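Hey, I'm writing a tutorial for new members on how sequence and structure tokens pair up, and I'd like a real worked example in the thread rather than a made-up one. If someone can provide the structure for the chain below, I'll link this post from the tutorial.
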Amino acid sequence: ANSAITTGGTTTLQADEIVIANTITATSQRVILATGSGHSDSISLGASDTASNGTLEISDTELDLITASMIEISAGGYITMAASINPANASTLNLITTSGSISQTAWVITATNFTARNSGGAISLSGSNLITNIAAIASGAVTINNAQNLTITDIADSTGTIAAISSTGSNVSISNSLSCGTITIGTSDIEAIGTI
């Protein structure tokens, strides 16, 4: 997107490679960034656009150019992190994939409201994240680490409402690396086939 985009509705950008060089404004709606129908099934968050490895790369700078109530990042494969992300102009960040995993071993996700949905694998967010409210569902294990107070609650994405944290096929692990931080469970609970 080389020209500014302003819309009153949902904006969807779907491609094998997306370069956001100007503002996208959908103030009361959502912006969806999705992999295309070509070779790119996976997404690397925080990465600069090198367009060399068949992965859709979305940098923090690009995310900061989006003003919306919700940014949704949707992949048909893996969602990984190459650098920290902090969408400056969106209150909700959603990650959705149907296969592979949503994974992070380092870096930081900063978000007021955050959801992760994986119908085909695990969610593993083990960085020192700065998330305020979270909801997640996966067919595999769910591992969440946070470095500030965290509230587990119901949050909507484009597919529906995710009720707190659940794994339909494995374990759930939630930790807070802040020595005096709290984890608050909202109106829903935490569900797992395995251990919690």
